[in-house]
Design goal:
Elements lengths: L2 H17 L6 H10 L3 H13 L3 E3 L5 E3 L2
Antiparallel strand pairs: 1-2
Helix pairs in contact: 1-2, 1-3
Length: 67
């Protein structure tokens, strides 16, 4: 994956978490649509963001952006 593609996916994940936050995975579907990316690519980037502490899991395992 190119750096540019990774940045697009990261931005889509951040936007979806910020604007479509829910417990049923709606943010993941929204990010997939925005970035035109498949689920495995989104999962890899999300786990990388978790490891870099740019996102965290809040109550009910709902993703939250780290401010």
């Amino acid at each position: 994956m190119t750096d540019e593609r990774a940045q697009i996916i990261d931005a889509a994940i951040r936007d979806a978490i910020e604007n479509h936050l829910d417990c049923d995975g709606g943010w993941l579907r929204e990010a997939s649509k925005q970035a035109d990316a498949d689920l495995p690519a989104l999962q890899r980037r999300f786990y990388k963001m978790l490891s870099e502490h740019t996102v965290t899991l809040g109550p009910g395992l709902v993703p939250q952006l780290v401010k």
